[in-house]
Amino acid sequence: MHQRLEQLGVGPLRITDSLGEATLAGAGCSVLDQSESFCSCRELVVTHPRFYRKIVTRGSLGFGDAYVDGDWNSPDLPALLETLAEVSVEESNERNPTRLALSAWQRLQQLLNRNSPRGSRRNISFHYDLSNQLFALFLDPTFTYSCGIFSNASTTLEEASLAKYQRICEKLELSPRDHVLEIGCGWGGFVEYAVQHYGCRVTAVTISREQLNFAKQRIAATGLADRVDLQFCDYRHLTGKFDKLVSIEMIEAVGHDYLPAFVEKCDSLLKPSGKMMLQAITIPDHRYDAYRRRVDFIQKYIFPGGCLVSLERLARVVHQHSTLRELQSCDFAADYQKMLLAWREKFLASREQVRALHPGDRFLRAWDYYFSYCAAGFARGKIGVSQILLEKDSGTNQRTTAQ
Fold first, then answer.
1. 231 within a domain of the structure (yes/no)
2. A GO molecular function for this record (predicted)?
3. Which end of the chain lies in a sparser environment, N or C, as judged by fewer CB atoms within 10 Å?
4. What three-state secondary structure class fits 308?
């Protein structure tokens, strides 16, 4: 493992084993004296020797498994994972029996977690129906669970969420005349903001029962129910025509195989010249094919069936399967790192409430790793987040439909 870290240019790291013996690993160790490096480098504390077996046999997934199982710790998990970001995306090319078995297991998991209508309901429920009480522990008062926009270092989570909603509404040029569709409405944060500030009508859908119940209660409490239609509905079953369409970080739950059908459906739901704002977590195109064929930590523990899109892949699908055209796109990945670290801080500050909802440490450690792992990905450019503004062609010609 030490040789691998140095080959990748990662380090220096201080690794303390289960016997309490500390060593230095990774690039740069030879030019640092012990006192300097021990103070400045990232630290990984191995608490059980099975840690080594897990990373040898399961790679980066085993590294995450070992953390959930309590086989290692770090005094600064986000910083350590950011340092190890280059390692975490590397997988062994060795065709040994253990790796072959892992690949077979991953293919089976992908088949079981496919985002068919039934599979999507199951996958969404796994995460979003954990309980509204859990999400209330770390989300801001708007109950926004997507990347916001930070204008400066003092921007709060709530301010970042509202700034995101404002930008979406401004880019779509919302007006009281508009009938807006939101696919994947979460707990209703955007719905409430759009109706309150722009006077539009909104139809919004989710396939999470917990989210739907919460959203209905919040809209009723604000007196906006006459302008809002909240539905438990899969996007594939939507009908009608809308002036504007919004989908905020829902596309990650669509899946590679269903992306053409999703784009076609969005195109069919928009009136001619209608606009769509899509906010999506993205992965670089050169990593996309390898990524979508395996099960990573997030898919195993947090979002089964989840699949990030690449901007290039999305652009091809939009061109081939719709009359939509891209007007503009912007990436704000640095803001997601801030969002995730703020969520993590609030989550860990509520650890006793988390344990009351999910006894033991495994759930707590899995979510700690989730927040830290994703924050590291955004910090190192391994993943991004973009807002993509699209417009439907004003004509009637339709492109090739999905098979």
1. yes
2. cyclopropane-fatty-acyl-phospholipid synthase activity
3. C
4. coil
Active site (catalytic) residues: 374
**Vertex 282, ends 276 and 287: CA angle to 5°?**
140
Lowest mean pLDDT among 38-52, 146-160, 238-252: 38-52
Ordered alpha helix ranges (H), 90-230: 97-112, 117-128, 132-136, 157-172, 189-198, 209-221
281 and 146 both lie in a single domain: yes
221 Cβ contact partners less than 8 Å away, ≥ 6 residues apart: none
pLDDT tens digit sequence for 292-340 = 988 999 999 999 999 999 999 999 999 999 999 999 999 999 999 999 9
* Prior bond of 12 cis (ω within 30°): yes
What CA–CA distance (Å, rounded) separates 106 from 175? Answer: 47
Rounded to an integer, what distance in angstroms lies between the CA atom of residue 103 and that of residue 93? 11
Sign of CA dihedral 366, 252, 282, 137: negative
Residue 112 placed within a domain: no
| pLDDT tens track for 169-198 | 999 999 999 999 999 999 999 999 999 999
In whole angstroms, give the CA distance from residue 109 to residue 299: 9
- Nearest-5° angle of CA 299, CA 304, CA 305? 100
Q: Edge-to-edge strands of the sheet including 228-232?
A: 228-232, 201-206, 179-183, 242-248, 270-282, 384-392, 324-331
Q: How far apart are CA 294 and CA 64, in angstroms?
A: 15
342 shares a domain with 303? yes
Query: Quick check: 403 pLDDT over 60?
Result: no
> How many Cβ atoms are within 10 Å of 19's Cβ, its own excluded?
7
Q: For the whole model, what pTM was predicted?
A: 0.90
- For tokens 């005094």, the residue is 75
**CA 350 centroid distance within chain:** 22
Please indicate, yes or no, whether residues 337 and 378 belong to a single structural domain of this protein. Answer: yes
Rounded distance between C-alpha atoms, residue 98 and residue 63, angstroms: 15
| 187-229 pLDDT, tens digit each | 999 999 999 999 999 999 999 999 999 999 999 999 999 999 9
- Tokens representing 316 are 């091809």
Three-state DSSP class for residue 222 = coil
pLDDT at position 91:
47
The gap from C-alpha 360 to its chain's centroid, in whole angstroms, comes to 25
Q: CA–CA separation, 153 vs 136, rounded Å?
A: 23
